[in-house]
Amino acid sequence: MFPYFIMLIFCGIPLFFMELSFGQFASQGCLGVWRISPMFKGVGYGMMVVSTYIGIYYNVVICIAFYYFFSSMTHVLPWTYCNNPWNTPDCAGVLDASNLTNGSRPAALSGNLSHLFNYTLQRTSPSEEYWRLYVLKLSDDIGNFGEVRLPLLGCLGVSWVVVFLCLIRGVKSSGKVVYFTATFPYVVLTILFVRGVTLEGAFTGIMYYLTPQWDKILEAKVWGDAASQIFYSLGCAWGGLITMASYNKFHNNCYRDSVIISITNCATSVYAGFVIFSILGFMANHLGVDVSRVADHGPGLAFVAYPEALTLLPISPLWSLLFFFMLILLGLGTQFCLLETLVTAIVDEVGNEWILQKKTYVTLGVAVAGFLLGIPLTSQAGIYWLLLMDNYAASFSLVVISCIMCVSIMYIYGHRNYFQDIQMMLGFPPPLFFQICWRFVSPAIIFFILIFTVIQYRPITYNHYQYPGWAVAIGFLMALSSVICIPLYALFQLCRTDGDTLLQRLKNATKPSRDWGPALLEHRTGRYAPTTTPSPDDGFEVQPLHPDKAQIPIVGSNGSSRFQDSRI
């Protein structure tokens, strides 16, 4: 938690504000904003690649939550007892001594759950076996795909249909949906929190959550995880912040927004920790073991440890329905942003009148592609690939992209220029703290975390399964595929830029293009004020602005004039 808050203050909030102000000033998506320095447009492509990877596997997580949600519509949760066809003799439930195993066990231990728990390291819970042997039908190797799990495939289709329908009219429709998806989880969290803290043993779990383990403070992995969590939680370097901010009104106070959203977001994460660990503490108390024995991470927490703890509560299906409904809503909120990032980047990049009018078809195309690419993740080896993508495709590449974005804006475009842009947009320059973080602190922290993460690198594992070398190599290739966009596009831009010498080409490729600046003519003041009326002959390129990003008078069929406007 300590590294988490350090990363929030010195990296999370400053980078969040930078991306919001960047997108809002130019009213462009993650590709269009790089008119600020065309040579670094590869950063935008890197963001698109990251968003693509996350969008593919994130919807698989949502589809598993859908599956558990539908499975909770029963009198007894299917992962409560060990008397199911898929259970093994090692299964040991936590509810009833008579249902501890469905195989042989020492007679002396038949009535003592705590002793049974400590007796064998092979003890597996009904929820773990339900997850591994029934939901996933997990194969023994990442290369052994087995069959596609049809129930998961069906849920994946449902989740993509929901995402598409919510985005069918772009930010106009998703902007309304997120009022529900962003607020209702707080209601569920509060209900689960009140239920959790009133349980016996909840205090033990909360103290385990809050007690620092100072011996881990020197581990680079802890700091790397904190950075990844901040980037993941706030959405930095995904391109989503730039995209959503591009729909803001030009003079919107994005400084206030960034501080409020960042703090509220991370406070929610801490609040959710109380919800989780109060119930894990209750479960540990019930088993008579330490909280660390029942706590888990990754999919194991969401789909094994917490669902098992819920079986101990009265009316457990109700709590399970609430929990997985909350997971679905939280996941959908993220997925909206990822899909909108890709669609907006494509539409802004093509920029002609046809694609502006056919944006719904672009959204449909991206959704169908995402569904097809997600099918392998619903196979029996799917969870191995999902964790591989999660660990490599969207971890250190995020911090690299953010670091390069900071350096390119502060040192290539120039910090004074950018501070003037913000003053022109907001009416005041960025506070001194943000100026220092953008120029020195944030890039330095990101750089050192990157170095130490490489030094202390450990190959990925899933429970006791060691990933083979070829799978780790694929993981590194996925990570590099987003970062490699930056030097490749820079070389491409250098080759096509005018100039007699390499230095001249470098200067021309990094200086802002002539159409960089506020999108609407009314906001082009100061150094952006047009001196003459642009004509097609002077090379000044004017692309159509997306209707959602401007108030464009449109004459209706009845001859009356109306205004298109959208609010997020």
Structural summary, described in words:
The chain has 568 residues and is mainly α. The chain has a single domain (1-79, 133-494), classed as Hydantoin permease. The chain has 21 helices and four strands. It has helices spanning 2-26, 41-71, 113-119, 126-135, 150-166, 171-197, 202-210, 220-234, 240-245, 254-287, 291-294, 299-310, 316-350, 353-357, 359-374, 382-393, 396-426, 432-455, 469-483, 485-496, 502-510, and strands at 461-462, 465-466, 553-555, 561-563. The protein has a two-stranded antiparallel ribbon with strand order 1-2. Strands 3-4 form a two-stranded antiparallel ribbon. It starts with a helix and ends in a 5-residue tail after the last strand. Mean pLDDT is 86; it is low at 96-113, 115-121, 536-542 and 551-568.
Total DSSP helices: 21
CATH architecture heading = Orthogonal Bundle
Cα separation of the termini: 31 Å
Give the biggest sheet. 2 strands, antiparallel
- Give the rounded overall mean pLDDT: 86
Strand segment count: 4
Element pattern in H and E = HHHHHHHHHHHHHHHHHHEEHHHEE
What's the arrangement of strands in the largest beta sheet? 1-2
Quick one: CATH class?
A: Mainly Alpha
Question: Residue share in helices?
Answer: 55-70%
**Low-pLDDT segments:** 96-113, 115-121, 536-542, 551-568
The number of distinct structural domains comes to: 1
Beta-strand residue fraction: under 5%
Q: How large is the radius of gyration?
A: 26 Å
Structural class: mainly alpha
How would you describe the shape?
globular
Quote the CATH topology: Hydantoin permease
